[in-house]
């Protein structure tokens, strides 16, 4: 039963982002304390929730591992490992013409989906979180989480915002870890009722460790290419592409000077704490505190990078404008039907004038 519940939760929350996720693909040994998901590829629509004109060109999730010490739950942490998150994104700014009926149908479909998700979440919360032993168990697990994320490389390549001058934006991270501790600096654990009592009883102190976080912006780049389709790459080949320089086969560390870093690789730690509700409060005593310690932080933006950022912003703004009037947009080219495109321009301008008049009327 518990294995089915774990598989259901993983499929529900990860299934929207990775391909081929099913119970058979999961290595589940619940009573031993291990749930493992390995070598999964990301779906092209994995970034849709960000509501940005960006799509996944290629993506790989190396490993997701959940380790639950059932025999010592409340005495040892529940560990979540995420390793090798590789993502290559590209623009998705092409807008196809849509009929008004198609736009309305799409809106109705989205509304129905949102309503179904809301009802499903409410029913699940009532049946599992509030009335079943599984809800209490999940609360306990949440109260003992220890997180570790390693080897992340997210890269966005843009060949259209500034024609003739392709650029790439990338985020790399060697490791991010987080754990909850008590006042004495030891890891703290909860045996039950974590969600209800963690804010009232436990000292909410979270320690975060960060290793080599970097942000680069490379101008006039050569887009990454592989010898075969991305979905046919082996796990070792994904690592070679994203952890090594794509052309020279050297590690990212050895090619630091070859990237135009906006944020040079930085290492540090942070501590967040929150007072107990039963502690005395005074006007000069903060309820929440955060302390951040970082190594040398170097920020730099090249002239070409600044130019490309402006081009990127213009492209995204133009996309949002085109999307707003997509239901008027003709499905044929300008050469084939220039009259339809003049009508499209007239309708778009008319809509803008109507909205401006409404705004002036209500103000």
Can you give me a brief rundown of this structure?
The protein is α+β, with helices and mostly antiparallel strands and 363 residues long.
Produce the secondary structure layout.
Layout: H1 2-14, E1 27-29, E2 34-41, E3 54-67, E4 78-91, H2 100-130, H3 133-142, E5 145-158, E6 167-181, H4 194-197, E7 204-219, H5 235-243, E8 261-274, E9 288-294, H6 303-324, H7 338-362
Parallel strand pairs: 4-5
Antiparallel strand pairs: 1-2, 2-3, 3-4, 5-6, 6-7, 7-8, 8-9
What does this structure look like?
The chain has 363 residues and is an alpha+beta fold. Helix content is 31%, strand content 29%. It is built from 7 helices and 9 strands; from the N terminus they run αββββααββαβαββαα. A 9-stranded mixed sheet has the order 1-2-3-4-5-6-7-8-9, sandwiched between helices. Helix 2 (100-130) crosses helix 3. The longest helix is centred in the first third of the chain and has 31 residues, at 100-130. The radius of gyration is 25 Å and the shape is globular. It starts with a helix and ends with a helix. Residues 1-357 form the Chorein N-terminal domain. It holds the Pfam family VPS13_N. Keywords: Transport. InterPro entries: VPS13_N.
Low-pLDDT windows of residues: 193-203, 245-257
- In N-to-C order, the SSE pattern is HEEEEHHEEHEHEEHH
N-to-C span = 59 Å
What is the tally of beta strands? 9
**Share of residues in helices:** 25-40%
Mean pLDDT: 75
What general outline do the C-alpha atoms trace?
globular
User: How much of the polypeptide forms β-strand, as a percent range?
Assistant: 25-35%
The order of strands across the largest sheet is 1-2-3-4-5-6-7-8-9
Structural class: alpha+beta
Rounded radius of gyration (Å): 25 Å
> How can the largest sheet be summarized?
9 strands, mixed
Helix count equals 7
InterPro entries: VPS13_N
Organism: Stephania japonica
Domain Chorein N-terminal: 1-357
Protein name: Chorein N-terminal domain-containing protein
């Amino acid at each position: 039963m518990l294995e089915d519940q774990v598989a259901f939760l993983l499929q529900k929350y990860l299934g929207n982002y990775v391909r081929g996720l099913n119970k058979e693909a999961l290595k589940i040994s619940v009573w031993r304390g291990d749930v493992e998901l390995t070598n999964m590829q990301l779906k092209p629509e994995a970034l849709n929730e960000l509501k940005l004109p960006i799509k996944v060109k290629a993506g790989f999730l190396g490993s997701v591992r959940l380790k639950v010490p059932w025999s010592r739950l409340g005495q040892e942490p529940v560990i979540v490992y995420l390793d090798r998150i590789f993502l290559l994104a590209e623009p998705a700014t092409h807008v196809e013409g849509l009929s008004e009926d198609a736009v309305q149908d799409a809106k109705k479909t989205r509304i129905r989906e949102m309503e179904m998700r809301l009802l499903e979440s409410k029913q699940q919360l009532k049946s599992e979180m509030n009335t079943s032993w599984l809800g209490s168990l999940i609360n306990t697990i949440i109260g003992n989480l220890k997180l570790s994320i390693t080897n992340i490389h997210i890269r966005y390549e843009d060949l259209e915002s500034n024609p003739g001058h392709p650029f790439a934006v990338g985020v790399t991270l060697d490791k991010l870890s987080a754990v909850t501790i008590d006042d004495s600096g030891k890891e703290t654990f909860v045996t039950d009722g974590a969600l209800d009592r963690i804010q009232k009883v436990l000292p909410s102190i979270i320690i975060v460790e960060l290793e080599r976080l970097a942000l680069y912006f490379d101008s006039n780049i050569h887009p990454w290419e592989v010898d075969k389709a991305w979905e046919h790459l082996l796990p070792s080949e994904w690592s070679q592409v994203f952890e090594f320089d794509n052309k020279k086969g050297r590690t990212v560390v050895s090619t630091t000077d070859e990237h135009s870093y906006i944020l040079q690789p930085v290492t540090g730690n942070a501590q967040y704490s929150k007072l107990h509700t039963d502690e005395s409060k005074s006007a000069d005593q903060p309820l929440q505190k955060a302390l951040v310690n970082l190594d040398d932080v170097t920020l730099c933006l090249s002239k070409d990078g600044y130019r490309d950022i402006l081009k990127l912003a213009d492209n995204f703004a133009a996309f949002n404008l085109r999307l707003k009037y997509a239901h008027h947009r003709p499905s044929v080219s300008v050469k084939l039907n220039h009259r339809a495109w003049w009508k499209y321009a007239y309708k778009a301008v008319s809509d803008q004038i109507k909205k401006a008049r409404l705004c002036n009327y209500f103000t």
